[in-house]
């Protein structure tokens, strides 16, 4: 499975560490990290100093926003030594069977093999965009053995051509539509919302509940957030991609 990462401005993980006995990690709002997962991660890195990491994350885990990887990176930040990005990626895979490329300086520039923790290709820069984002449906934590995803390899060449935002949005829409056609759920309202609100396109986490409508900078509709909430999306908010 390969993925392209969207990097929004603003959301971040805050981690604090306190020395102690054993190894533990606690999210302020979402509870403790699985001790077995944490132990696998530490073992893959050759050990971590004993103590407790406290995390503050912008989104709940299991929604397709990369919070599982981000939380593990928060723990690794207190390793007391420099850790190479690929070492961190492989440790995340060893811990939970998958990884997002958040340990790299420009994750949006990577075509990423999430189940293997490796770079498949370097990508052209992403254009800046404004998003109406939210979550639809239940949390769907990534399952390492789940490989039933739509083939979108034919879209990559057009993505690589440094295409304008409208073209990129259309490609993201096609990828998302193929995912819904293969995996469901058939009642997903995001494509209809994109059409009704005049978005350039829409996108989704192919293994999570995250959804977003794509607009040119400054073109967010006034009543867009209300429309998403009325359609059943939760956690609706505005985002801006970093652009490069």
From TrEMBL:
Could you tell me the superkingdom of the organism this chain comes from? Bacteria
Task: Name the UniProt key words of this record, in alphabetical order.
Answer: Plasmid
Q: What is the name listed in the Swiss-Prot or TrEMBL entry for this protein?
A: Propanediol utilization protein
Please spell out the taxonomic lineage of the organism that makes this protein: Bacteria, Pseudomonadati, Pseudomonadota, Alphaproteobacteria, Rhodobacterales
């Amino acid at each position: 499975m390969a993925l392209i990462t969207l990097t929004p401005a603003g959301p971040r993980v805050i981690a604090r560490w306190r020395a102690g006995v054993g190894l533990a990690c606690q999210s302020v709002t979402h509870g403790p990290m699985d001790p077995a997962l944490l132990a696998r991660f530490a073992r893959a890195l050759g050990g971590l100093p004993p103590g407790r990491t406290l995390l503050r994350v912008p989104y709940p885990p299991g929604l397709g926003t990369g919070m599982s990887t981000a939380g593990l990176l928060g723990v690794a930040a207190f390793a007391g030594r420099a850790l190479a990005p690929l070492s961190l990626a492989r440790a995340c895979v060893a811990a939970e069977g998958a990884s997002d490329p958040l340990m790299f300086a420009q994750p949006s520039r990577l075509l990423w093999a999430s189940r293997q923790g490796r770079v498949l290709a370097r990508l052209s820069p992403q254009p800046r965009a404004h998003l109406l984002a939210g979550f639809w449906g239940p949390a769907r934590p990534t399952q390492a053995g789940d490989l039933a995803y739509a083939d979108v390899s034919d879209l990559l060449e057009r993505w690589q051509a440094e295409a304008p935002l409208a073209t990129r949005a259309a490609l993201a829409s096609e990828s998302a539509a193929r995912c819904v056609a293969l995996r469901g759920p058939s009642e997903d309202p995001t494509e209809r919302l994109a059409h009704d609100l005049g978005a350039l396109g829409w996108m989704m986490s192919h293994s999570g509940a995250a959804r977003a409508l794509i607009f040119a900078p400054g073109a967010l509709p006034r009543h867009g957030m209300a429309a998403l909430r009325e359609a059943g999306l939760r956690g609706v908010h505005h985002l801006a991609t970093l652009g490069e």
